[in-house]
Write a structure and sequence with these properties.
disordered N terminus; Receptor-associated Protein; 15 helices; 72% helix; mainly alpha; three-stranded antiparallel beta sheet
Length: 418
C-alpha cells in the first residue's frame, strides 16, 4: 500500500483582486510629529493616503513612484525569492504579524523589483486574500509547490513551520543549481573564448604571415599550408560560420522549449556523457528526494506530491519516471517498488526509501538521501574544477601554440637553409 500522511487540501485560488496596484512615494509625519517617508502600494492616491492614516501617519505628499531611467529594472532572480521566504520564516518565528513582516522585508530589500513584488503581495493580503492565494497571483516567481506548501501551513495553523521548510527547500535547490552551473559554465566559457581567439588569429594575424611567405620561393610545411587554408576559409566565409553558430543556437533553444521529444533526447544524451552525466544524474536524484521530503513532511499526500516532484527533477527521464511512480503508487504499489521499476534510482536510494516506509519516517529518509547526493554533487564539482583547470590550460596552449608554431615553421626552415 502507498504511504501517505494526513491529507492536506489542495490550495485553491481565491478570486484575484484587480491587478492595477500602483507604487506611491510618500512623505509625512508619524505619531510623534517626526518627518518620515516611504512607499505604499494602492490602487489610487486616495486609498494610499487612507492606508497611511490607518497606520498612524499624516501624509503630506503622495505621488506615483517614477519609473527608472531607460526602463532599467533589476530582474528578480530565484535567489531573491529564497531570501524573501527565509526572511518571512524568521519574522513569523519571532512572532511578527504577517502584514508587518511584509512591510519590514519589503522596505529593506535592495532590489526595487522585488520590493514592489513584496508590497503587492502585502496589499493583496491586507485586502483579505490568503498568503498562498497572493503568491499564486505571481506564478513566474512562486510555483505550485511553494503555493501548496504555504497553503497547507495556513490551513494547519503552522505557517511559520511550513515557511521554514519552504525556505530551506528553496535554499537547497538554488545551491544545487549554482553548483551545476559552476561545473558546466567554466569549460563552456573557455571553449567560447578559445574559438573567438582562434578566429581572430586566423582572420587578422595569419594573413600577415601569408604575405611574408609568398616571397620565400620555397614549399611551405604541410602544417603551415593547412593553417593558411583554414585562414582563407575563415576570411571568405566568416559571416557564414558565425551565422551558422547563431542559427544553431537559436534552433536548439526553440526546439528545447517547444519539443518534448527533443528535450527527452537531449536529457538522455546528457546522462550518458562521461563525468557530466553522473553529475546530472546525482543532481536529479537530490532534487527528487529534497522536493518529496519537503512536501511529504508538510502533510501533502504522496500521490498528490508526485506531480510537483516530477517538475522539480530537472530532467525529462526523471520527470517521466516520477509520473509512472505516481500512477503505480495510486494503484496501491509501495513507493520503493515503484522506484525500483523505473530503473533510474541506485539500490542505496531504494533501500533508504524502503526503510523509511517500514519505519514511518519516509520524509526523514528522503531528506538524508537529498543531503547525501547534494554533498556528492558538491564533491564532484570540486573534483571537476581541479581536473578541468590543467586540461583547459593545455587545450588553450595546444590551440594557440599550434597556430604560432605553424606560422614560425617556415622561418625556422629558412634559417636552417641559410
Amino acid at each position: 500500500m502507498a504511504i501517505s500522511k494526513a491529507p492536506a487540501k489542495k490550495v485553491g485560488k481565491k478570486a484575484p483582486p484587480p491587478n492595477d496596484n500602483i507604487v506611491f512615494v510618500w512623505e509625512g509625519l508619524d505619531k510623534k510629529g517626526k518627518r518620515v517617508k516611504g512607499e505604499v502600494v494602492a490602487t489610487s492616491e486616495i486609498l494610499a493616503k487612507a492606508d497611511l492614516r490607518r497606520q498612524g501617519m499624516n501624509p503630506l505628499r503622495v505621488r506615483k513612484k517614477p519609473k527608472p531611467l531607460f526602463g532599467a529594472k533589476k530582474k528578480i532572480i530565484p535567489k531573491d525569492i529564497a531570501i524573501f521566504l527565509r526572511q518571512m520564516s524568521t519574522m513569523m518565528e519571532a512572532g511578527v504579524p504577517l502584514v508587518q513582516a511584509f512591510e519590514i522585508v519589503g522596505r529593506g530589500h535592495e532590489n526595487p523589483a522585488m520590493q514592489e513584488l513584496i508590497l503587492k503581495i502585502k496589499s493583496d493580503v491586507e485586502s483579505g486574500t490568503t498568503f498562498s492565494a497572493a503568491l499564486a497571483e505571481h506564478p513566474r516567481y512562486f510555483d505550485d509547490l511553494v503555493v501548496n506548501l504555504v497553503g497547507a501551513g495556513e490551513q494547519a495553523g503552522a505557517l511559520e513551520n511550513l515557511l521554514d521548510k519552504v525556505a530551506t527547500y528553496k535554499e537547497k535547490t538554488e545551491s544545487l543549481k549554482a553548483k551545476i552551473k559552476k561545473a558546466l559554465f567554466y569549460p563552456a566559457a573557455v571553449i567560447v573564448v578559445a574559438f573567438i581567439v582562434t578566429a581572430i588569429l586566423l582572420i587578422k594575424v595569419v594573413p600577415q604571415f601569408q604575405d611574408l611567405f609568398q616571397g620565400f620561393g620555397a614549399d611551405l610545411p604541410v602544417f603551415t599550408q593547412m593553417v593558411i587554408q583554414l585562414s582563407e576559409m575563415f576570411q571568405t566565409y566568416w559571416w557564414a560560420i558565425f551565422g551558422a553558430i547563431i542559427v544553431v543556437a537559436f534552433v536548439y533553444r526553440e526546439a528545447h522549449v517547444r519539443s518534448k521529444n527533443f528535450r527527452r533526447q537531449v536529457d538522455l544524451l546528457s546522462l550518458r556523457l562521461p563525468i557530466v552525466g553522473e553529475l546530472l544524474r546525482k543532481a536529479s536524484i537530490a532534487r527528487f528526494a529534497r522536493t518529496l521530503s519537503t512536501m511529504f513532511s508538510a502533510g501533502v499526500p504522496l500521490v498528490e506530491a508526485m506531480e510537483s516532484v516530477a517538475g522539480a527533477t530537472g530532467n525529462a527521464l526523471y520527470y517521466e519516471g516520477t509520473l509512472r511512480m505516481r500512477d503505480e503508487t495510486a494503484g496501491g504499489a509501495q513507493l520503493q517498488q515503484a522506484m525500483r521499476n523505473t530503473g533510474l534510482f541506485p539500490n542505496m536510494v531504494v533501500q533508504m526509501v524502503s526503510i523509511g516506509e517500514e519505519s514511518g519516517a519516509l520524509d526523514d529518509m528522503l531528506a538524508r538521501v537529498a543531503d547525501f547526493y547534494e554533498e556528492e554533487v558538491d564533491n564532484m564539482v570540486d573534483a571537476m574544477s581541479s581536473l578541468l583547470e590543467p586540461l583547459i590550460m593545455s587545450f588553450l596552449g595546444i590551440v594557440v601554440g599550434g597556430l604560432v608554431i605553424a606560422m614560425y615553421l617556415p622561418i625556422f626552415q629558412l634559417g636552417s637553409v641559410v
